[in-house]
Write a structure and sequence with these properties.
Blueprint (H helix, E strand, L loop, with lengths): L5 H22 L16 H31 L5 H16 L8 H14 L18 H6 L13 H14 L3 H30 L3 H8 L3 H9 L4 H16 L3 H12 L7 H13 L4 H27 L21 H17 L3 H25 L16 H14 L9 H12 L3 H13 L11 H23 L31 H5 L9
Helix pairs in contact: 1-2, 1-3, 2-8, 3-9, 4-6, 4-7, 6-7, 7-8, 7-10, 7-17, 8-17, 10-11, 10-12, 10-17, 11-12, 11-13, 12-13, 12-16, 14-15, 15-16, 16-17, 17-18, 18-19
Length: 522
């Protein structure tokens, strides 16, 4: 397979995607009841064979994506148009599949039905829906963790789910496809925003599209699983695009809409503020106030207005921590806290839950510190970037989101996409981009097509992670094989005197490399 062309990998990946979709018909997350008779359970032998087919297809998809990325790095995969064609080939089969690798879409539909039926989604779970109410089949199909759990999502997403339920009459199969339309719209917006950010940064648009949109982790969990993280990422990236073009207010409003889907998007407001400070003039105190007050006020206003218009109430303010009550093995802080809590129970008879909560809180505190550090790194060179130019705010946002994921009390495989989507547009082939590539290839195996997390899924993910790290190290050392001219070394230049706040300009590295004469002091 190492000798295939980009077209060859496109076709091979499409075969893998078809296998994932076909296997999902029997081994995917099927609804508890399907009046249409389309997604119904099969015998155990058929289900097991379908799961094997889905895993084989997933492997073909991952291998094709990996090798396609190496062609992109060598400049032999074609351009943006060819990569968009590959994206369509790989995503199309998943559109017709049942929910894959997660049951979350059923809880989305049930929560939308709760809004229609007048239930408070922020005090009750889908189990409150009666058998004769809209969304009853979706409630019965929801994952066990979410059956009695209030919604942690904002009113924007709940209104979208409500519209899907109203348009489909709450029927399970049409409602799933309605949510998939929302996911496909999010994917389209991610593609647009990724290309715009990469263009603004002078990065390789094809590479950004490869890591940010063609990523199998995104295809499986946004197109296949219909997680609302895709919509959050799409709106957040669109806000960053607007901010990069000087539209601070519109950018902040779009990020606020992303927050009203899932709250982690709020981190982007800090880096929009960093852009405002770096690109405006005037006294430093006034610039700082404007930079961080304006995005915050705009976001607050949008949050209030959308909440009032949605009619769901402000209960989302108190349910942001409910996800943290669900233990996931990918959360380092939860795992460490749980392990030490069990040890203290053995030694001293203590309750392990407060110990676990303590470590989760410490993890979040450390995440906040890293985010603050990333904001500082957009203004000056700080460790671990000492000696390098200050971070671009968009890239720093990706760093901050990755840190938030790593240190959160609840981590799901698709959470990696929060930061990867931004990193792909700023440094897809840099160190963080390569780490995100390896993790994306590995974490896609962590969940079964039904959405469960079997032990062998973690074993496969660990093996892929090790193999991917070795391959990435070997491939990164390979000499250039394409005919593109090498980038000449940067020409030393005299740095222009800083503004009164001693803040760096927004010039990209490519601009600095083309400077021929020293700048004239102001």
């Amino acid at each position: 397979m190492g000798t295939l062309s980009a077209v060859g990998y496109r076709r091979l990946g499409a075969v893998g995607s078809v296998a994932v979709a076909v296997g999902g018909i029997a081994a995917g997350r099927l609804p508890a009841r399907d009046p249409w008779g389309i997604w119904v359970p099969h015998g155990s032998a058929t289900t097991a064979a379908a799961a094997v087919l889905a895993y084989l297809g997933l492997t073909l998809l991952v291998v094709s994506w990996w090798r396609y990325g190496r062609l992109v790095a060598r400049g032999t995969a074609g351009g943006v148009r060819e990569t968009l064609g590959t994206l369509i080939w790989w995503a199309a089969p998943l559109v017709l599949a049942p929910p894959l690798h997660s049951a979350d879409v059923y809880s989305y539909i049930a929560q939308g039905a709760m809004v229609v039926e007048g239930h408070d989604v922020y005090t009750s779970g889908p189990s409150v829906l009666g058998p004769d109410e809209l969304g009853a089949d979706a409630a019965a199909s929801s994952g066990a963790h979410w059956t009695d759990t209030p919604a942690p999502y904002g009113p924007v997403f709940l209104v979208l789910a409500k519209w899907v339920v109203q348009a489909t009459g709450g029927q399970i199969v049409p409602a799933v496809f309605g949510m998939r339309i929302v996911a496909l719209a999010a994917l389209a917006l991610i593609v647009w925003a990724t290309l715009r950010i990469a263009c603004a940064r002078g990065a390789d648009e094809t590479g950004a599209l490869w890591l940010g949109a063609l990523n199998p982790l995104l295809l499986i969990h946004v197109v296949g699983g219909m997680h609302n993280d895709g919509l959050m990422i799409a709106l957040m990236l669109a806000g960053v695009v607007c901010a990069l073009h000087g539209r601070w207010v519109l950018g902040s409003a779009l990020v606020a809409l992303a927050m009203m889907v899932k709250s982690p998007a709020a981190v982007a407001l800090l880096f929009i503020g960093a852009l405002v400070v770096r690109r405006t003039s005037g006294p430093l105190p006034w610039r700082i106030v404007k930079a961080f007050a304006v995005p915050g006020l705009v976001a607050g206003a949008v949050a209030v207005v959308t909440t009032l218009l949605s009619g769901t109430g402000f209960g989302w303010l108190r349910t942001q921590g409910v996800a943290g009550t669900i233990h996931t093995a990918l959360s380092a802080s939860s795992d460490i806290g749980l392990g030490i809590g069990k040890l203290t129970r053995l030694l001293f008879g203590w309750d392990p839950d407060p110990v676990k909560s303590l470590f989760q809180t410490l993890g979040l505190a450390l995440a906040v510190a890293v985010i603050a550090y990333a904001v500082l790194a957009t203004f000056r060179s700080v460790r671990p970037w000492r000696g390098a130019p200050p971070l671009h705010p968009a890239h720093a946002l990706g760093v901050a989101l990755l840190a938030l994921v790593v240190l959160s009390p609840m981590v799901q495989p698709w959470y990696l996409l929060w930061g990867t989507a931004v990193i792909s547009a700023t440094a897809w082939d840099g160190r963080l981009g390569r780490i995100a590539t390896v993790l994306s290839a590995a974490l896609v195996y962590e969940t079964h097509p039904t959405g469960s997390t079997p032990g062998y899924g973690f074993a496969i993910a660990a093996a892929v992670c090790v193999l991917g790290a070795v391959l990435m190290r070997m491939e990164h050392r390979e000499p250039r094989t394409d005919d593109r001219p090498a980038i000449p070394p940067a020409i030393p230049s005299v740095r222009r005197p800083s503004l009164p706040a001693n803040l760096p300009s927004m010039r990209t590295e490519s601009t600095e490399r083309t400077e021929k004469t020293p700048s004239t002091p102001r």
